[in-house]
Specification:
Length: 220
Amino acid sequence: MALYHSAHLPLRQRQSIFDSPFDDIDTVNGLARVPSPYHHLSFSSYSVLTPRDPALDGMISEHDLNCAVSSPNALIGSRPMENADGAYFDVANATSMAEEGLQPYFTLKSFYIKPMDAPVPGTKVFVKGYTKARKGPYVWHVDFPSGFHLPFLVKMEEYSGEEWKEIYTVEITADFGYDDLDWEFCVDDIELQFFALPEDESESHSNSGSQSVLEDRAQR
């Protein structure tokens, strides 16, 4: 099941870990949409996939049944159309996060990824993290040679050489061949970290919410 928890610390120190294998989402015939919001996130151009669902027999290579690192589910993503932006996930609702005392940004820690099937001459996966911490996005990529692959654990800070912090959107694309054509890929076990609002901002949102309640009561 998905894990989403907050450490038992004072609000200004609190941090929340989102570590989800997406296994709490029910699929029909092996597929489903990602609920929105899903643990404060919104997913675009992704679907939930249950690779070993009997309804998908013959539709998925036997070499891709391992895309769900933690069975039964994973995400499958691709561009919505050629030359479009990649599949992405981002903060769904900054206001609701603030009401819960959380900043509308996160640190991306790690995730598993693999291209589907075994395209020739290979697939290149690009990851971009759009952030308020600097002007341009964080960028990292990995090359998968032709052939079937196990899911690859991407450790963002270790492999890119920098911490992917204060992110509000993560975009992933997979290109194959010499013409950089779009290719489907699987993602699973995304780990990211939310942080609490500074104490003064949290109190401001709390007071604002209390004032709204008082005003609503006065109008009744």
